[in-house]
Amino acid sequence: MMKMKIDFFTEGNISLPYKGITTRKLAIYFKKICKTLKLKNISIAIIICDNDYIKKINKKYRKKNKSTDVIAFSYRENPFPAVKLDSEPLGDLYISLEKAAENAMTYNVGLIEEVKRLLVHGVLHLIGYDHEKSGRDEKIMQKKEEEILRN
After folding, report:
1. Are 147 and 139 in contact (CB under 8 A)?
2. Could you give the CA distance from residue 42 to residue 5 in angstroms, rounded to a whole number?
3. Could you read off the pLDDT of 71-86 as tens digits, one per residue?
4. pTM of the predicted model, to two decimals?
5. Half-sphere exposure of 5 (CA within 13 A, CB side)
6. Which of 18, 49, 69, 99 could serve as a FRET partner for 58 with CA atoms 20 to 30 Å apart?
7. DSSP string, 65-129
8. How far apart, in whole angstroms, are the C-alpha atoms of residue 37 and residue 133?
């Protein structure tokens, strides 16, 4: 049996539900992503925010003074001292629903489809994929993202 703990938080001037996006829908899709990736016994914090909030996070931790759609902080990269836990903490995933809505308009897709893509993208970062390392890594991550989104 797959154990999973998902904590949802909102930051900035945003709240759920947001244009049809609910914690229930996010949890259902997150579980599908984990099943596809064969991730078991994990925990994650999903922080839903607005553009201003994610811009502050992006500036502070990535030195980029602009809003973005998703930022992932993986606990696998900087593991905590060994403690017996019921689940592996994957990390924190920040998603700007305002930026997701902008992206959906730009790419002519529905908001839920864009949020699903951002969830997939963020989870892939949490488990070690990084499109910013090289063109090759970008292609590998993009292929994996497309594979998951087809399921």
Report:
1. no
2. 6
3. 999 987 655 555 666 7
4. 0.91
5. 12
6. 18
7. -S--SEEEEETTTSPPSP---SSEEEEEEEEEHHHHHHHHHHHT--HHHHHHHHHHHHHHHHTT-
8. 21
